[in-house]
């Protein structure tokens, strides 16, 4: 009997595809079962007569994602596994009521990308034209949460976001770190050999300066309000290109001429999730505070000493001039831990005695993905 390698290969493929079909069926049944459990959780909460039923729990979601990554044995990497779980949770949550999220728009920006990364594609995202509008939408209850940029690894802090926290009662409920990749894109009408103008946000132009100097030294660089606006602008200009993210290219039907043109390969931006409720401890948390101090010798040392004394690990200290006095300063401080932790409570009590004012902006799960 002759051996037929082609026939054997075909039989092996059929067997593997049958296995995949069986697994797909099991996955579908388990996702449906999980969705039914999520519905039962909602019913239990409603039956308990909670005055304002909260379906989304940031600390719970962070714990689920961390466990998914800890259990993962490959071949998918941890981040990909967590991303799949995020989408399952997003879809299950939307059965009750989709989460409404305001973000710094327009559509196609990195902030929208951060919102989807954190809340999943089943969330309803709403673009706002300014950071203070995002704060207002959340304060008014028009949306459940807001997403605002706070810090870029190469360009530094987003001061407008910090300034909004000073006058707001909103709390930080979470954080998202997004690896930022910039792409040079063109429209169908662009003559790619005749590009004389490049649109983008001023920060993006700065983050791609060396690449632009090397490849398009004579092209005019035009700063606009957002990368998404840059992507929209080039639709009718035959001699223009835009620098933006992949999401903008997909949204506005553009072709990516050059990918990943950022000067720093590890360029990333940190975004904050803002909401109205206090978030319980998740096990791996961060806290953000803002303190006002008088400009006196040793003021910064006095402010930071209690954190060192009680072994609270600071991750960021940012200074802003205070609006209330010419020689007073406001410090934004991030550190590891939750306000429920005793060392954090002790350190904050000592800090409060040394400063003019202390405000806890929120304790929240450390970014998972």
Automatic annotation (TrEMBL):
EC nos: 4.2.1.51, 5.4.99.5
Which key words tag this protein in UniProt? Answer: Amino-acid biosynthesis, Aromatic amino acid biosynthesis, Cytoplasm, Isomerase, Lyase, Multifunctional enzyme, Phenylalanine biosynthesis
Q: Where is this site: Essential for prephenate dehydratase activity?
A: 269
Q: Which residues form the Chorismate mutase domain?
A: 7-100
Matching SUPFAM superfamilies = ACT-like, Chorismate mutase II, Periplasmic binding protein-like II
Q: Where is the Prephenate dehydratase domain?
A: 100-276
Q: What is this protein called?
A: Bifunctional chorismate mutase/prephenate dehydratase
């Amino acid at each position: 009997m002759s051996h037929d390698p082609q026939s054997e290969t075909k039989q092996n493929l059929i067997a593997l595809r049958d296995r995949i079909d069986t697994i797909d069926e099991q996955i579908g049944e388990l996702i449906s079962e999980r969705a039914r459990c999520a519905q039962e959780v909602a019913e239990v909460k409603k039956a308990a007569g909670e005055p304002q039923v909260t379906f989304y729990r940031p600390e719970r979601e962070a714990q689920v994602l961390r466990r998914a990554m800890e259990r993962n044995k490959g071949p998918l990497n941890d981040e990909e596994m967590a991303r799949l779980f995020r989408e399952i949770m997003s879809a299950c949550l939307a059965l009750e009521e989709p989460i409404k999220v305001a973000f710094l728009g327009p559509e196609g920006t990195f902030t929208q990308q951060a919102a989807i990364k954190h809340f999943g594609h089943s969330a309803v995202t709403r673009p706002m034209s300014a950071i203070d509008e995002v704060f207002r939408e959340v304060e008014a209850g028009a949306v459940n949460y807001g997403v605002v940029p706070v810090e870029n690894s190469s360009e530094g802090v987003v001061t407008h976001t910090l300034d909004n926290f000073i006058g707001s009662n909103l709390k930080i409920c979470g954080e998202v770190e997004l690896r930022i990749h910039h792409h040079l894109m063109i429209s169908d009408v662009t003559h790619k050999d005749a590009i004389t103008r490049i649109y983008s946000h001023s920060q993006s132009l700065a983050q791609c300066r060396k690449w632009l100097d090397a490849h398009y030294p004579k092209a005019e660089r035009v700063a606009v309000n957002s990368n998404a606006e840059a992507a929209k602008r080039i639709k009718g200009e035959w001699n223009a290109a835009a620098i933006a993210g992949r999401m903008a290219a997909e949204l506005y039907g553009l072709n990516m001429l050059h990918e990943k043109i950022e000067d720093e390969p590890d360029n990333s931006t940190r975004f904050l999730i803002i909401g109205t409720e206090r978030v319980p401890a998740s096990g791996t948390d961060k806290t953000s505070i803002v303190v006002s101090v008088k400009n006196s010798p040793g003021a910064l040392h006095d402010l930071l000493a209690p954190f060192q004394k009680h072994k609270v690990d600071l991750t960021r200290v940012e200074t802003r001039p205070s609006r209330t006095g010419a020689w007073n300063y406001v410090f934004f401080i991030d550190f590891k831990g939750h306000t429920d932790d005793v060392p954090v409570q002790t350190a904050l009590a000592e800090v409060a005695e040394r400063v003019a004012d202390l405000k806890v902006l929120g304790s929240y799960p450390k970014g998972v993905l």
